[in-house]
Specification:
The structure holds 2 protein chains of 2 kinds. In chain A, about 75% of the residues lie in helices and about 0% in strands. By secondary structure, chain A is an all-alpha fold. Chain A has one domain (about 5-40, about 90-445). In chain A, helix 4 (about 70-120) runs antiparallel to helix 6 and helix 12 (about 295-325) runs antiparallel to helix 14. The two termini of chain A are about 30 Å apart. Residues about 45-70 of chain A have low confidence and may be disordered. In chain B, about 45% of the residues lie in helices and about 15% in strands. A 4-stranded antiparallel sheet of chain B has the order 2-3-1-4, with helices on one face. The two termini of chain B are about 15 Å apart. The relative contact order of chain B is 0.28. The chains are: A mainly alpha, B alpha+beta.
Chain lengths: ~450, ~180
């Protein structure tokens, strides 16, 4: 049995408290009126580089209009006011987006771990049984993380905040495209879907864990067979719901844009993060002496999965990017134009973190067995995929007013603390290695 | 100089593995082991150095990537930067996404083919090569260990090999170099 060290508990709580304070301060410091925006822009000297370049043409038009006769002057004034209003909305969105991104990021780790767990059962893998309890621990975050996610979605779907443009009835009233999509993108149906997805995933998680715990007290394979069946069923459910979830929760930030392989793309990022987290927690527990049965070969396998899924993610990223870049159809390509113009560093930087780094560091078979190599690469991969979600969400909600500052980092801290707390508390609930599984012996002796 | 080699034949890979361990423990020199199929771990117990073919493959991949990049940079950007369907041929990076499929394929092509050729050369395999097979049964269901008889007492060595489970032991005059 694993007992939660009080130091780790304190560590998690400190992160949660610091994060919560930062989140609240992020909401409090967000501007409330256009006058405040004007003040802030003056104080910050128009913010950072991308901000200034974005605003330059607006100011030019404003000044030329001001030189014109009096009726033009009013135009100029209203266009400047409209611009400030636009920036105000972006700045008000920022703490919400920061919260949403961090929430989704940690939630998707738990969800990816659940899918990976189901795959291990359905594929009857012979190496991963000693890691099942670690995976079960990670998926424990699915419940609290999913509930917070649902609350955030409800707030956004019913337009308490401005995260989803399609949730604003005024915008929809003037937008033919959004009217056309309103039968799918409306608050009620959006939440019903979210409830179905989350309910299905949590249901599988509940029974998978229950069957796994039950099998500890049995000597036959009854519970294993049940786990196998529900895992296969869950995977079918998962691949449909994951796809729709990615349209709803991520792609609908840009409701004028669509991409057919988006669901796969989100899935690939999710799987990399989940496997990386499994590897990191396994290495951590092993270093504390709780997982003696885990050997180099298990770590090697996890590192291979990290390596492979990193390349798979890059493949999908590139396929999506290159097809749209090549065809250059205006209604599709704006998605990447805003990202390349306003998010150049994160947009291409994540490619280095999510592709070049793992490919070069984890290509060597020996390095995959070196724990600190896996940990180092894992941290870079996780940071890279946070940036990936950041670049998927932020351009649509805050546009050029982005920055990785207090709201973003505090949100990461808060959910990181919560994640650590929930996962490691869940690990104390059952023996850290399962007792009865037809593949358990093979897994314990696993050698590559 | 004609040297003498002892051929010990086994009919089971587990017995062979144990025999290899024992023979090495007695400090006899194993010239070669012939097996009909890959025996997992045989290289480890024989103490063979790990292969470096993956490293060569990585380097060949880099060569392929360079060839692709230099080729397309010369053809598409430097030599004749035509406007083809509005693609930006001002610099390599501006038009890079359309070159990536070729860069990828040539990397794989070079890495795979040059590695295979390296393998053939290093293991001396080519068409019309004379087969170096001491006993045709080793391609079907027998395992053969060739031990350098050298200055050892052949009687003693044969007896020892019998204890390791060899079903046939023969002394061979090894006068041709292959």
């Amino acid at each position: 049995m694993y007992t939660l060290p009080s130091k780790l508990k304190l560590f998690a709580i400190v992160f949660m408290v610091i994060g919560a304070i930062g989140i609240v301060s992020g909401f409090l410091t967000a501007p409330k009126t256009t006058a405040e925006v004007k003040e802030m822009m003056a104080a910050h000297g128009d913010g950072h580089g991308s901000d200034a370049s974005h605003e330059a043409p607006h100011h030019e038009t404003a000044t030329t209009h001001e030189a014109a006769p009096s009726e033009g002057h009013q135009d100029a004034h209203s266009s400047e006011e409209a611009h400030l209003e636009h920036t105000l909305h972006q700045m008000q969105n920022r703490p919400w987006s920061a919260l949403y991104i961090a929430c989704f990021f940690f939630f998707m780790i738990a969800l990816g771990a659940l899918a990976f767990y189901a795959i291990q059962f359905a594929a009857q893998a012979g190496w991963s049984q000693v890691l099942f309890r670690v995976m079960e621990g990670i998926t424990a975050y699915l419940v609290p993380g999913g509930i917070i996610m649902f609350v955030l979605l409800a707030l956004s779907g019913f337009h308490i905040n401005h995260l989803f443009v399609w949730a604003d009835p005024e915008v929809v009233a003037h937008d033919k495209l959004l009217q056309g999509k309103a039968s799918w993108l409306n608050g009620t149906w959006f939440l019903v879907r979210a409830a179905i997805f989350l309910g299905g995933w949590m249901l599988y998680r509940h029974f998978a864990v229950k069957f796994s715990r039950n099998s500890d007290d049995e000597t036959d394979n009854r519970w294993f067979k049940k786990s196998f069946k529900i895992s296969a069923g869950f995977l079918v459910f998962f691949i449909y719901t994951e796809s729709m979830m990615s349209w709803d929760w991520i792609m609908s930030f840009d409701p004028h844009w669509f991409s057919t392989l988006f669901g796969w793309y989100v899935l690939a990022g999710m799987m990399v993060c989940a496997i990386t987290t499994i590897a990191l927690i396994t290495i951590f527990l092993k270093s504390k002496g709780y997982l003696e049965v885990v050997n180099d070969s298990h770590i090697h396998d996890l590192a291979k999965f990290m390596f492979g899924f990193s390349i798979f993610w890059t493949y999908l990223w590139f396929s999506q990017f290159m097809l749209i870049w090549y065809a250059n159809i205006p209604e599709e390509v704006t998605y990447f134009i805003t990202r390349i113009e306003q998010y150049k560093l994160p947009f291409f930087g994540m490619l280095a973190m999510n592709f070049l780094f793992p490919v070069l560091l984890l290509m060597n078979s020996d390095y995959k067995r070196v724990n600190w190599f896996v940990v180092l690469t894992g941290i870079v991969i996780l940071a890279g995929h946070y940036v990936d979600i950041f670049v998927m969400v932020m351009p649509a909600t805050v546009g050029s007013s982005w920055y990785i500052g207090i709201p973003e980092i505090s949100s990461i801290f808060f959910f990181f603390g919560l994640f650590i707390y929930v996962v490691f508390t869940a690990l104390t609930k059952a023996p850290i290695v399962m007792k009865n599984n037809p593949f358990l012996k093979e897994s314990k002796q696993y050698h590559y | 100089m004609a040297s003498k080699v002892i051929h010990a034949i086994y009919n089971d890979d587990d017995i062979l593995m144990n025999a290899v361990k024992k023979v090495r423990a007695e400090r006899y020199h194993i010239e070669e082991v012939y097996t009909p199929f890959p025996v997992h771990g045989l290289d480890k117990v024989m103490g063979l150095a790990p292969t470096r073919i993956a490293i060569t493959s990585f380097l060949y991949g880099l060569v392929g990537l360079s060839v692709a990049t230099l080729m397309m940079n010369f053809i598409m950007i430097e030599d004749w930067p035509q406007n083809i369907g509005g693609k930006p041929s001002f610099s390599y990076i501006a038009n890079m996404p359309s070159f990536v499929p070729i860069m990828f394929e040539l990397t794989v092509f070079f890495a795979a083919h040059l590695m295979v050729i390296t393998f053939y050369m290093r293991s001396k395999l080519w068409p019309f090569k004379k087969a170096e097979n001491p006993d045709p049964r080793t391609t079907d269901d027998h395992f053969l260990m060739a031990i350098d008889a050298g200055h050892h007492d052949v009687e003693k060595l044969s007896k020892f090999l019998h204890t390791t489970g060899a079903i046939e032991i023969s002394l061979i005059d090894n006068d041709e170099d292959h």
